[in-house]
Amino acid sequence: MFKKALAHQSNATPIRSSARRQLIAAVLAQYPSCLEPGVADDGPSEKELGKVLVPEGVRMGSFETSAGIEGTMYFDQEGDPLWMTFGRNSKEYIPTLSLLSLPLPHPPLPILQIHHPIPPPLLTGAPLFVPALRNLSRLWYIPDVPEGGIVAFAISEKNDLDVSYIGIGRVVAKGGVRGAVERRLQKLRSDTDVDEGKFCEVLCIKDDHLWEISSKPTLPTFPLPIPRQALAPPPQSTAGPSSSNVSEVQNNVAKMAISDTPKAPSNLSASDISTLLSLALLQTLSPESASSPSFPIPASQLYSGFILPNRPAYIPKDQRDDVVIAKSEWKKLAKWMKEASKEGLIKIKDSKGEITVQSCDVNHPSIQGHTTFVTIAEDDAKAAKRAAREAAAVGDGSVTGKGKRRELEVEELWKPGPGAVSFWEAAGVDKASLNPAHSLKTALDEYLVKRKLVDDRDHRLVKLDDELGRAVGAKNPTGQVMARDEVLRRLRAGVTWSVSIGGTVRKGPLQPITMAVKTRQGRKTVTIVTGLETFGVDIEEFAEELRKLCAGSASIQPLTGSSPKLNLQEIMVQGPQVKVITEALVEKGIPKRWIKEVEGGKRK
């Protein structure tokens, strides 16, 4: 959300004491965990906690992100952002990392621990995917958050349970956290390509622009708490571990339809690690393996380049680092290779302590009876491809399971312009709110009926009063008559227009994507496509797509007549390709009514 500098940020001004009290009440109502019932009496009172969450002297300012998303931010006296909202008049207050760095008695947000180091695409604005989530084998550490809920991201540099905050996001997965985890474990169980989709939208993260404008406070390290509402209860209660506790966990996991998921035990023994490495070796040597070595090959290269990537993907990510030769029963790679040679799986050559694997017996019963599985390398490759696709699709709209985009929701919005505020107030329209396009005509009709300004003999004409006359720019409005369509046209021209594309509000009227077939010298025709930037279409990718669809050239050039500062571009495609281009744009989710063909001329 804040991967780039803000497009606009107003000066922050102090809020009134009454507004501060209302903000404290709203925050405590939205995050009741801050005052968790049953805490010790020596904890902070509601008044004391309010001073921490919303300190005295708090200031408020509006902002607009580089993507055109508007919002409000609340700063402390030092200028650190503490709370933010997205959208006009939103009452959903979202804490920032600066707020989470404060000494709070309880975490205000449910916490999701993700793997360290964090996936690099997160730092470039990409969403979070389930494979980055830790504790899939310990569901009592994963909060049960519904779709649309706000969560905090935390990491541990040692990949243990001592964590620190790293970011804040919104759960966008269907079915919330529970649904996303179920789909993830179903995929691991069945080895099928289940479309998991996006898990969380990243609202802010450490080192983004929001972090840069703060004082970069130290984010404390704390033990990962067990959430009050987790995906499964913890394996033991305060009375100590018992078989009934373990049975209860197993029953709850079974209800989630993941009890039969192949996974490593919570604490892998040396025997377990040896078994998993043996499976990885059989996967490597199998003729059906997607990644097989060429012999002869040094044992160290076979181990690092093939065996480790071919470990089963159902090993939880927080335990994969344990499945290595040093923690197995063999301890040394040479000992394992010699044992595998004695079993007849491979033939080796020992030269001054250096083991070289000469060949393998593909007819060995262990290899013949081996059933292939999804490997860590394959799982990582799928996650990387999906992350790359989603990163490229940020801001472009949702994608269905079949790869075809859902149609973008495009809505024109307006608010009264400065020259006709008094008329719109008389018509009952709030001067600060954004209204759908159809409401403009409705407001005018209601005003005309209420003031009895419709011409009795011809309803296509209206009489102008002082307010309406000033709004449409009439010099002497009293007694004048004007066509209703002309009044509507002038009113539309006098308001301030914005547009909502896929839920993102941008200022200014919406211009459609235009296509013009033009004739160049030599009687060659080309199709010029402009206006793609407004709908978030990647121009370079779309040009490459058109080269394939049209089986011809498609070049990118600066938009003729536009300012270089705007960095607007157009695509010139060989031949008359209006139909093909229209279908390609509709496939991307662009509504057909926003794709126009205009008259072309000769291009020299």
Write the layout of secondary structure elements.
Blueprint: E1 8-9, E2 13-14, H1 17-30, H2 46-53, E3 59-64, E4 70-75, E5 81-86, E6 94-95, H3 97-100, E7 111-113, E8 150-155, E9 162-171, H4 176-190, E10 200-205, H5 209-212, E11 221-223, H6 243-255, H7 270-285, E12 297-298, H8 299-307, H9 333-342, E13 346-351, E14 354-360, H10 365-368, H11 376-392, E15 410-415, H12 421-426, E16 435-436, H13 438-451, E17 461-463, H14 466-472, E18 481-483, H15 484-494, E19 496-501, E20 504-507, E21 513-520, E22 524-530, H16 539-550, E23 554-558, E24 569-574, H17 578-587, E25 595-598, E26 602-603
Parallel strand pairs: 7-8, 21-25, 21-26
Antiparallel strand pairs: 1-3, 2-3, 3-4, 4-5, 5-6, 8-9, 9-10, 9-11, 12-14, 13-14, 15-16, 15-19, 17-18, 19-20, 21-22, 22-24, 23-24
GO molecular function, one term: translation initiation factor activity
Biased composition (Pro residues): 224-236
Domain SUI1: 511-591
Structure description:
With 604 residues, the chain is α+β, with helices and mostly antiparallel strands. The protein folds into five domains: 108 residues; 153 residues, Archaeosine Trna-guanine Transglycosylase, Chain: A, domain 4 (Roll); 109 residues, Arc Repressor Mutant, subunit A, CATH 1.10.10; 96 residues, SWIB/MDM2 domain (MDM2, Orthogonal Bundle), CATH 1.10.245; 93 residues, Translation Initiation Factor Eif1 (2-Layer Sandwich), CATH 3.30.780.10. It contains 17 helices and 26 strands. Strands 1, 2, 3, 4, 5 and 6 form a six-stranded antiparallel sheet that branches. Strands 21, 22, 23, 24, 25 and 26 form a six-stranded mixed sheet that branches. Strands 7, 8, 9, 10 and 11 form a five-stranded mixed sheet that branches.
